[in-house]
Amino acid sequence: MKKMMIAAAMTVLAGAAHADPVAGTWKTEVDDGAYAHISMKPCGANICGTIAKAFDASGPIDSENIGKQLVWDMVPGGDGSYGSGKIWQPSTGKVFKSKMSLSGNTLNVSGCVGPFCKKQTWTRVN
């Protein structure tokens, strides 16, 4: 029994040690009067993000976009950098080639469609 408990504890610790530092919930900047909480987590070897909650100036709102994937195929590059991903902008419906840079509780997200580029700074919620 003691060996099983030790093995289980080691498995949990190993999983925590391999958790990507960008995993968690992030608050986007306001875009077209609304912002969202994005749940970032591994999807295979890469990172993906799903819209967990949506807000406007009055507070939480019901949005048809909750549960939709906003970020996908972000490849961890080490040292808090991520690239070769895609990001969807709900207000325009456009999908941008994207990259991210993590620094503490700040995530700099940028993306381009042709010559047009946009960027946002997201803050960690948890």
TrEMBL record:
<feature type="domain" description="DUF2147">
    <location>
        <begin position="24"/>
        <end position="124"/>
    </location>
</feature>
<dbReference type="InterPro" id="IPR019223">
    <property type="entry name" value="DUF2147"/>
</dbReference>
<protein>
    <submittedName>
        <fullName>DUF2147 domain-containing protein</fullName>
    </submittedName>
</protein>
<feature type="signal peptide">
    <location>
        <begin position="1"/>
        <end position="19"/>
    </location>
</feature>
<dbReference type="Pfam" id="PF09917">
    <property type="entry name" value="DUF2147"/>
</dbReference>
<keyword id="KW-0732">Signal</keyword>
